[in-house]
Amino acid sequence: MRVLLVGAGGVGTAITRIAARRPFFEAMVVADYDPARAEAAVAALDDARFAAERVDASDEAAVAELLRRHECDVLLNATDPRFVMPLFRAARTAGATYLDMAMSLSHPHGEQPYEKCGVKLGDEQFAQAEEWEKAGALALVGMGVEPGLSDVFARYAADELFDEIEEIGVRDGANLTVDGYDFAPSFSIWTTIEECLNPPVVYESDRGWFTTEPFSEPEVFDFPEGIGPVECVNVEHEEVLLVPRWVKARRVTFKYGLGREFIETLRTLHLLGLDRTDPVTVPSAAGAVAVSPRDVVAACLPDPATLGERMHGKTCAGTWVRGTKDGAPREVYLYHVVDNQWSMAEYGSQAVVWQTAVNPVVALELVATGAWSGSGVLGPEAFPARPFLELLTAYGSPWGMREQ
Amino acid sequence: MRVLLVGAGGVGTAITRIAARRPFFEAMVVADYDPARAEAAVAALDDARFAAERVDASDEAAVAELLRRHECDVLLNATDPRFVMPLFRAARTAGATYLDMAMSLSHPHGEQPYEKCGVKLGDEQFAQAEEWEKAGALALVGMGVEPGLSDVFARYAADELFDEIEEIGVRDGANLTVDGYDFAPSFSIWTTIEECLNPPVVYESDRGWFTTEPFSEPEVFDFPEGIGPVECVNVEHEEVLLVPRWVKARRVTFKYGLGREFIETLRTLHLLGLDRTDPVTVPSAAGAVAVSPRDVVAACLPDPATLGERMHGKTCAGTWVRGTKDGAPREVYLYHVVDNQWSMAEYGSQAVVWQTAVNPVVALELVATGAWSGSGVLGPEAFPARPFLELLTAYGSPWGMREQ
């Protein structure tokens, strides 16, 4: 297997560190808009299978050319969701397998944004599913930790733990703190704003997909391994769009453990219009310039990938499932916890970034060995769960299950 | 009297509308960085005494030249506080009387910003007081509503209402709402951030000036004329620096009725570093550019001067004084309320902007008639209060007093 990894930010760099320990691929070309980032990631490894390139992820033709030039059979997308579509199309053009960790972006419903779905997450990708299927080509979408591992958990629950499922609720929470910062998000603020301020999507088997007001249905979820109770709210996330396509459940939700302070901060950004991505005109030393307020918010905060050394605590991704087994009610939480101290010591990557990065590497290895195969645009729950969970454990990062 | 008015924003434009009804001056030249703003203000008046010019307020030499060319004997500064020093120096250079509504900016103490003063508001101006005095020239500083009318109230209380004063506390509150906006400050957000996030300054006769944490000493103050109770907190403001120079009081404070939501919004902006004025680098269509986050916050919000039509409610500026008269304890609140509906109908200016603008026009008229005269760098409380309060009433905008 020859892989083109696009994006050498926090997650992309962690992917190179995790993949470097595995023998399943022959080559991994690391490409970034900023060649210094790609070169730094490769230079840190001392592994002849890795090479650095510069590429503009929005330039579909350049990406396809790069795939061909390096004879890559897989494109792994580790950029932010704005670049999903050009990279997805470039992979198809070049005949490569495609993997990503977030799907094409949504657009709210014009008249009833908090009731009805407009363009849903992944809609643009699924619209091309037939083309991929006909070509016998595979696009494995939403294959990070959430979406990704959370979807694998949903499939595992359906296959092995339940006869009937009432509700599948992805629940994400952490107790991470960062020394020296009163406010330092542990993940890309651009993406966090996008997913938290868009209308959250919910699935119910008799209604289909629908949306609610942001931060709806708050609940306190008790996270395992010492993290404890965190306030979680509905957030727009890919699992709600992916799980019902392959797993039967009456209801599917995603709730993010943002905590009260973070929710209020996001509300304020929205109130002030600072979450906007369309440009506003401001003075600068070079005269009036047009900038995106959301980019300015991101520029004022520290880069989450650089915070590992100052970070303490654990992050938990998981899937809570309620239903029946052998006629009796059952409720479980399948989860994966990463301790920042461990991920920093083992990989030099902070916990949230490492947890996102390990899952696509496991998936690549399953594709390389043939344990996972298929064609079309498929989510992680379209594949058998057990081989994935076993390989994740073999990577040194076990998962857990709590009967509730 | 021939006046150069620098700044044709909300307050500057309201000044032209108020002044146009008064006969005390021969000419008012309205100058702005944006010539269209100056021309619009002049065109609206149909009064041959007014003329429009373009000027860069940071260009001291150009301002002095403009003063000389139009033979102006007064410079009235209606720009934001960043331009105080060049305009103040230009007036001195050209031999003109100088008036402003905010004083030169402060810089926090390097080691103990929330205990000790660094460079205080107005320090740069007072450093040149001797030069003005020697030249027999007058700089009347802090002559808006707050500082300005609030200082006149303090002098009035000392002269006519009290034998001894324990505390003078300026208290500002409003019940303004803006249709169609969840968040729309009624005054320049740039200035509001500056004054609310700088360490608040307090004066005590036995300690001198000192600072506290932002938003300290919250209290609920009951404002008159139907505004009612509003949560007020300590804020850095010129009155605390001006009043003790001319009026004897054991303690001087300024508390701003921001309300809980606005305080939390400002805290969040600070937490995220969005109150910063030093530039951050962000992408733009023209490549990477450096912009001030605070300018971006301002650009995302509506221009307060344009909100008058959608605004409802009243704004109150005033000075609360506690002390003794004829051996008995006394407590009064001297205040000035503007109803937005009235100021829009009468002048087409929103209440907060109009209330700021009327006071320097009254002061100009007192200087023109000789009722107020002096030399040096002087605050409003350096002059007799009664002629000011009588003329303000004659302008159709009476003040009030509440015995507590």
UniProtKB/TrEMBL annotation, chains A, B:
Residues 3-140 form the Saccharopine dehydrogenase NADP binding domain. InterPro entries: NAD(P)-bd_dom_sf, Sacchrp_dh-like_C, Sacchrp_dh_NADP-bd. It holds the Pfam family Sacchrp_dh_C. Residues 144-396 form the Saccharopine dehydrogenase-like C-terminal domain. This is Saccharopine dehydrogenase NADP-binding domain-containing protein. It comes from Streptomyces spinosisporus. The lineage of its organism: Bacteria, Bacillati, Actinomycetota, Actinomycetes, Kitasatosporales.
